[in-house]
């Protein structure tokens, strides 16, 4: 299998077949919490793509050059990765606030939320410690593969979030039985979306 | 005293983390495929929740406001690592099934949310009780969902390799319920049901 093909498979797998929200069930809090307006979803998506790429790179390097060589990865990976992500997000927030106030206004409020976005930690751990997410194919990511994988995960997150927001805006004005109004019907919608994404299983042998 | 007990009650009912506050959903939906999973996940998350609430509350006077989130996360991740390694050593089969969700307790919004919204501002005792209440609230929803999905999705309930309840061989289970879309559907219907009950009680 050529290198390009392999990268393509990793990307499609992360984007559709193992969609982080609808198939892996990771990061659902933000999925339901912020999907009530389109502006918020787009802002959050951009912020997630950015933070995920950086934190995966950091965790990959840390695992490769610090944790694995010293044999301390097995019991220290959770504190180390989460500390790196939380620290990075905090630093990032201060940096953007000082240098680009307009960008901060658009993206700033989503940054603290991202710290607890499980998707970031999950992707960061998966690229560093392959097999963490128990995908069918165990990869041993090189750095470019880690980037492609993370990009796929982040874009899968954004796509699912934006589609879901669009559907929810339509449902808000639909006649729904009273006890099901609001969140319950959103969950039932998510159930149908998830069912649709299950259809991607087996695509290109993934 | 009433106020302190109220800290427990609110987690179970009106401020139930899953059904009312809508936090910590990811792990709940995923693990609630079996009663047994729900039980272990509930215990694991409650342990982390109670311990981190206590420690965050005890350290609240020395925690600088600017970097409180990284500090909370370090506190939480210590307890998560304890749970992670304990389960891995003593219950390998269950650990295998709960999979990534044990390490991911560290970013479970319930725990960070309670640290930030409650333990950072309250006394140690109140925080511990709040942790117990939230833990119980989380666990009962997991068990209820697990019961429904396992019973109707597979036709029987198996805990510790023993069949506790069976619907008999003539029951053809809808496998849909134990798949991912089934989790969303069950949760949506459970919320709808709770809303209906609360509406009746309220009127």
**CA-to-CA gap between the ends of chain B?**
30 Å
Question: Which range best describes the helical content of chain A: under 10%, 10-25%, 25-40%, 40-55%, 55-70% or over 70%?
Answer: over 70%
Poorly predicted tracts of residues of chain B: none
What is the chain-wise order of helices and strands of chain B?
HHHHHHHEEH
Q: How is the main sheet of chain A built?
A: none
- Summing up helix and strand content along with how strands pair, one would put the structural category of chain B as mainly alpha
What's the structural domain tally of chain A? Answer: 1
Integer-rounded radius of gyration of chain B: 18 Å
Describe the structure.
- Helix content of chain A is 73%, strand content 0%.
- Chain A is mainly alpha-helical and 206 residues long.
- Chain A has one domain.
- In chain A, helix 3 packs across helix 4 (73-99) and helix 7 (118-128) packs antiparallel against helix 8.
- The mean pLDDT of chain A is 80.
- By secondary structure, chain B is mostly helical.
- In chain B, 67% of the residues lie in helices and 4% in strands.
- Chain B is globular and about 60 Å long.
- Chain B starts with a helix and ends with a helix.
- At the A-B interface, helix 2, helix 4, helix 7 and helix 9 of A face helix 2, helix 4 and helix 8 of B.
Care to give the gist of this entry?
The complex is a heterodimer of chains A (206) and B (203). Chain A is mainly α and 206 residues long.
Protein topology:
The complex is a heterodimer of chains A (206) and B (203).
Chain A: H1 3-17, H2 28-33, H3 38-70, H4 73-99, H5 101-107, H6 110-115, H7 118-128, H8 143-171, H9 183-198
Chain B: H1 2-12, H2 25-31, H3 35-58, H4 68-90, H5 92-98, H6 109-119, H7 124-154, E1 156-159, E2 162-166, H8 180-202
Antiparallel strand pairs in B: 1-2
Helix pairs in contact in B: 1-7, 3-4, 3-6, 3-7, 4-5, 4-6, 6-7
